[in-house]
Write a structure and sequence with these properties.
The chain is an alpha+beta fold. The chain folds into 3 domains: 142 residues, DNA methylase specificity domains (Adenine-n6-DNA-methyltransferase TaqI, Chain A, domain 2); 98 residues, Helix Hairpins (Orthogonal Bundle); 141 residues, Alpha-Beta Complex (Adenine-n6-DNA-methyltransferase TaqI, Chain A, domain 2). The protein is built from 10 helices and 22 strands. It has a 5-stranded mixed beta sheet with strand order 2-8-6-7-4, with helices on both faces. A 4-stranded antiparallel beta sheet has the order 13-21-18-19, with helices on one face.
Length: 397
Amino acid sequence: MWPEVPLDQLGHVSRGKSRHRPRNDSILYGGPYPFIQTAEVKAADLRITAHNQTYSEAGLAQSRLWPKDTLCITIAANIADTALLSYPACFPDSIIGFIADEQKCDVRFVKYFFNTVQERMKMVSQGATQDNLSQDKLLRFSIPCPPVEVQREIGDILSTYGDLIENNRRRIALLEESARLLYREWFVKLRFPGHELVKVLDGLPEGWELKPITDFVTLLSRGITPKYDDLAKGLVINQKCIREGRLNLAPARRQSKEVKQDKLVQLGDILINSTGAGTLGRVAQIREEIADCTVDTHVTIVRPKSVETMGFLGVALLELAPTFESMGRGATNQLELGRADIGAVQLLTPPNPLQAEFHNIVWPIFEQVNVLVNANNLLAEARDALLPKLMSDQLAV
């Protein structure tokens, strides 16, 4: 058996810093220093390679710049998600940073150990009002420590999977962005094929119209109230499944209620989160067949009329996500995005042949994205099968 030691005996451990109040003070942001938040740790597989916010000099002064390869461990909002910094960055006190002593451990080995105990960490973090993983609780988890050379070999093996997954994620992001850039080029900047030969009348190309979304669909409906059953075959998509313009079935749940045929999701359906602040307005499209699957009552199904326009309508509604987010009605925690409100939103609509031409270009892009997503799922399954055996010395390196 390998000896076990707490994290603080393997390097430096401390919470991130964000001392200034209010935290959203504009003077803190907009500078050159990356500012990492818990959602970005959660979204990473091995390394954090992107960020949405930066600190100014004032932001840095009340925080701390952590070095590359710092292990970020979330302790609030998302519990015990871990990822390595790919570059120096700041982060708030909802993240604990670990800087490894390379003579004692391999930081990748430590990161993968925490993967194996994440569920236990979530259990000890449960609180009456809000879950929280304190530094004291974190240090109660002793880490098995084989010789550093063995740790590095294990880190090399497991990080190969992580690097492949991250590479596929970058390819996915580039492919999806290419489809959205093409949409903007053709239907926002109006530089579509043959635009030089089309007259512009009252600001619109000849043959183009403004139409409500209802003109494009055969179904605009909320989902069902599920009967959850972990042993059932039926699958129900919830709002957690829709993030960053993409559908992730990992948070979906099993349910046993019989579902009418029209409320089973179909290829090309567009799903819009329709309840509550924070997730309201997020959009994703069904881009491959999913058997016996529906959505819950917090998600709206928008079903295109024809296969030829699936690509156009899907990207158009993805581009409208900020508009949908702003349309919620009601109290802050009970915001609702009504079906009628979605249906009334106007789209600048090109002639059907141009919609079909756009679909024929972007749908193969989305099919390639599906291939990469499925490849990542297989890579993650293979890594996760190896992980506990390598970390417990059941499988020799």
